[in-house]
Amino acid sequence: MCDEFTAGAEEAHLARRGLNRRQFAALGAAGMALVGCSGTVKADGGSDVSEKMVSITTADGICDAFFVHPAKGTHPGVILWPDIAGLRDAFKIMARNLAAEGYAVLAVNQYYRGSPAPVLDSFSEWRTPEGQAKIAPLREALTPDAVTSDAKAFVAFLDQQEEVDIARGIGSNGYCMGGPFTVRSAAAVPSRVKAAASFHGAGMVTDAPDSPHRLLARTQAGFLFAIARNDDERQPEQKTELRKAADAAGRPAEIEVYPADHGWCVVDSPAYDPNAADKAWQRMLALFSGL
């Protein structure tokens, strides 16, 4: 999870690049994509995709989201849940990349109850006192019930779009705090959400009765759980409990600890690792190919 423990790893990553946090923040998402160029950053500005901001009616208000898809044809829908810093340019880049692979991607503003996106312009802002103060009350509103309700609204939105192939399943991917939201999405509409990928997900295995790992039996999805090595250091039992839960539920699940730190998949994260991110990306595409 994004706390002081992972902040230390981020500082080490920046030091190896010869950057401090201020210099890194000044690069922005586009600059970071160039610094850590990999196969996962390829669609921005160059692919034949169509995009727009959309408004989605939920039980709690109007959610703003970024909807991007191939310019022609119908395609499986995907719900993208951003990390703790919320919907911003970094996730628009990632959504475009996935759309270029043949998916209709809805990157949501999970904080819509309190603010339109972007709440923060970059992950680096989350590490400031001001950024954390902005996020704290918005984060509190994201109860399991709220996320489940939102997921139902997002599925309904996708199924109403002419660019979405409703004969195929919907996928979901999530990062950091968005990781468990993918599982809740699969449990919210099991007949539609058929694949869920969590990258350095936080709070996947807890003592709560509705812990994400306890929801797998309510789903009809296949899963990818890509775990950060420093998250595994603190909670080594997470991978074992996820495997037990998936096996007990009879759900296919790929569970792996990556040789990278929390945040490695997100292009504006100090921990971004292009090689590990590309591997995780390819494993997600393999999962989504079954939709």
From TrEMBL:
Superkingdom of the organism of origin: Bacteria
Keyword Hydrolase among UniProt keywords: yes
Single GO MF annotation: hydrolase activity
Pfam families reported in the protein's UniProt record: DLH
SUPFAM superfamilies per the UniProt record, alphabetical: alpha/beta-Hydrolases (SSF53474)
Keyword annotations from UniProtKB, A to Z: Hydrolase
Cited InterPro entries: AB_hydrolase_fold (IPR029058), Dienelactn_hydro (IPR002925), Dienelactone_hydrolase-like (IPR051049)
Domain Dienelactone hydrolase: from-to ranges: 64-289
The keyword Hydrolase is assigned to this record: yes
Gene3D superfamilies referenced in this protein's UniProt entry, alphabetically: alpha/beta hydrolase
Matching PANTHER family: CARBOXYMETHYLENEBUTENOLIDASE HOMOLOG, CARBOXYMETHYLENEBUTENOLIDASE-RELATED
Protein name: Dienelactone hydrolase family protein
